[in-house]
Every structure is written in structure tokens, then in C-alpha cells.
Amino acid sequence: MSKDTKKVIRFTSITEYKTLEKYLEKKAAMGLMLSEIKRNTLVFKKTAPRDITFNVSLFYHTTPFDYPNYEEEKDYRELCEDSGWEYCTSNELYQIFYKEKNVDAVPIHTDSEEEYRIIKNIFLKTDFIGMLVIALMLVMGFIQALNFDYSDLFSNISLFVIISPAFLLLIILFLYIPTLIWFIRNKINVARGKDLVYISYRTKLVLTVMTWSLIAVYIICTFLAVTDGYKNIKGVIAFIPAIVSFIVGRYCYKRIKTKKNTRKHNIIFVLTVSIITAIIFTSSITMSIMLTFRSFENNDDVPEEIKVLELSDFGTMDEPKRFHTHEKSSILVPVYIDYYESLGRKADKNEIMTVSTIYIKCRNKSIADYVFDGYMEKQKKRSEKRILEYKEYGDLEKAKEEESNISRLHNDLWEVDRGYYLWNNKSEIIIQKDNIIYILDSDVDFSEEEIINICKQKLRF
């Protein structure tokens, strides 16, 4: 891009092409003459200020699966030039012409009913397809949001997945609601024999500012998600579908528009490429996630300021043969660490074999309360399910044992706000103190005073 040119990104709906005319005229008056137009990108060339009139003419007589009919485009261009208009540039939707203000030219598209029909047909072939795809994405996104779980607070990528449908919906509303309103309003005008009305330049400017503001917020959220993902490859993986879809889509589009094939051939080609891409993509993602989980097993670093239980705390002299550290964080839960140690062999008599610590530090106590309650709700539902299964098989003893698995621990003895034993043998507990949550699991009895003192001393309650 040279110093004499300027590139502008501008989202323009099919129904806003008259607004585009006014925009181009204002730019020309400022000394910026349109030289090239793509779908949402305008390229201007610096010139002397000019007082000219633009005519943006919709010309789209194919479908996304058709090779362009360049002969029809050429005939239409010659017709407009014979009517007194000078050709400026074009893309797959628009043929753009201009004339000096003092030059007479025959108006293009003067019949409201015919113009409305043309706009409607082009909209159904272009933007409407995009709306359906986006609508499907939004439905899937909101379904995911309905399955929101307390554990989604532990990473920015999970939070991003939850809130992104809302941002996308707002962006789509600003992009497409004016178009739908235009069709409803002008359908009435056509029925009454009136001229078509278009969105004003000022209204379009306001909508553009609002849309770009929402996009900016969306980009910031995306950045936060990606910065969380650098520690967890699953965060990066979440963005791969959109990237792959864009690359494959652009490849298919360019092939269709540059290689002259039948519509049937192009449809089969797109379906084949899509299926092959989906298979390869799914396989690679599955492999990446497996490799990610393996990498967690080899990570044994725990931040020095965070205390976790170790086998040596309970008098075990041998070094653990198996251990891992799983670390996550988000803007709501700054620290989440899952640390595990195991001897990797059969334990001797009275020897502690395994110990694990999940340390959760939330932004405030309210968030910690939500996480704690969510965890306990899931534990109780699992317990209720097991109780029903035992009763169905007639094992009432097991059912009764399961009913007593979850019990409160002594808050004063542990010096915490609240906590629960999660098994009859008291080998697993969850405790909360202010905005900190610990989930401890080992082959020890956490109700014994000696064990409690070890935990309090090591974890520094």
C-alpha cells in the first residue's frame, strides 16, 4: 500500500448500497477517489477534491457455486456507460459508476418494484446464507452457555466460550437488523406504489461506531482467552475451527470463481473438501488434546507461595515415582492448581501411597462460595445417582453406606469457614476459608487430629 492510497474496512449490507454512494461522494470531495472495492474493503487513491455523483449498481446473477458470468457483466457495464456513466470499479456484488455533477446521465434502476426484487434476490443468495450459518453458530453457542458449570470459571477460554455468543449476537443485530427492517418497510412502500427508502448516512455512521466498539470488546476478550491458552493448548485449539473454516472457505470460493465448472460440480467439490477437512481436523484435535494431557504429567512445578500436601508430610521417606501438576487461571479464578503424588508401587503397612491437593484461589469470597456450592451440588447429585442404582439392584446396605458418605467437618477444629468429608472413610475433603478452596484426597483419615494438624501446619490456614 503506497502513500497515495488508503484502505478502509467497511461493512455494507445489500440494502445499504445507496448509503455507500453518499460515503463515496464525501470521500471524493475530500480528495479520496475509490479505485478498488472488495467485499468489505475499499481502496482509495489520493486525488484533487472532486464534486461527483456515484451510482452503486447491484449486479449479482449467479449463486455462490457458480462461475462468474463475465459476459453479462461486460454487457451491463457498456449499457451504463452508454447512459452517460463512467465505470469506476466492481466486485462480486456491485458495479460502481460515477459522473461529474454537471453532466447529465440516465438514472439506473428507477422502478421501485423491480429494484426491490433485485435486492431481495441478491440478499437471499448472499447475506441470507451467511445469516443462517451465523444463526447455527449462535444456537450452538447458547446451548454451550446453558451447560455452564462452576469449573468454567477456572480458565479464560471457558469464560470466553460462554460469553462470546452474547457478543456475537449483539454484533449480528447491529449488522442485520437494519437490513430486515429495510425489507419490511420497503415491502409496504412497494405495495403502496411509493419509492424505496434507505438508511441515512448519519444512522449508518452510528451503527458502524457501535459495531466496531463491540468488535473491539470481542477482540479484547479473545486476547484474554488466548493468553490463557498459551499455558494450555486446548485454549489455542478452541480457535482452530474458525481459522480452518476461513482458510478452507476462501480456497473453495477462489477455486469456484477462477475455474469454470458446472454448479453441480462445484457443490460436490465443496462437500468433499468439507468432509475431508472435518475428518482431518477432528483427528488432529483429538491427538493434540491427548498430547496436552500427557504434558501435564511431566509438569511438577508448583509456585513457591502456594502450599500443597506431599507424601513426605506424612512420614513417607521414598521419593514419589508418579506426580503431576495441572495449573489453570482466569480473571475470576487467578490460581487453580491440581497437584498429585504417588509411590507408584504397592504400599507397605501403614504407608501413605497417594496424596493430591487441588488449590483454588478466587477473585473474591462470592466467587469462592459459587465454586464451593457448585462442587458440592455435583457431588451430591453423583451420590444420589449411586444410591438409586444400589436400590434398583437391591443392595440396600450399599445404598445406606452411600447416604452417609457426605458429612460436615468441624469448622472450628480445622479453623476454616466450612467443609465436608466426601467419603465414609474421611479420605477426601473440601474446605473453604475466605476466597481459598482446598480439595484434599489421600489414603489417610482427615478426621484424625494428627492429620488435621499436619494439614493446618503445611497449608497454613
UniProtKB/TrEMBL annotation:
- Residues of the signal peptide: none
InterPro entries given for it? DUF2812 (IPR021359)
Keyword Mitochondrion in annotation: no
User: What residue intervals traverse the membrane?
Assistant: 128-147, 159-184, 205-227, 233-253, 265-293
Q: Matching Pfam families, A to Z?
A: DUF2812
UniProt keywords (A-Z) are: Membrane, Transmembrane, Transmembrane helix
* Protein name from the UniProt record: DUF2812 domain-containing protein
In its UniProt entry, the species of origin is given as Vallitalea guaymasensis
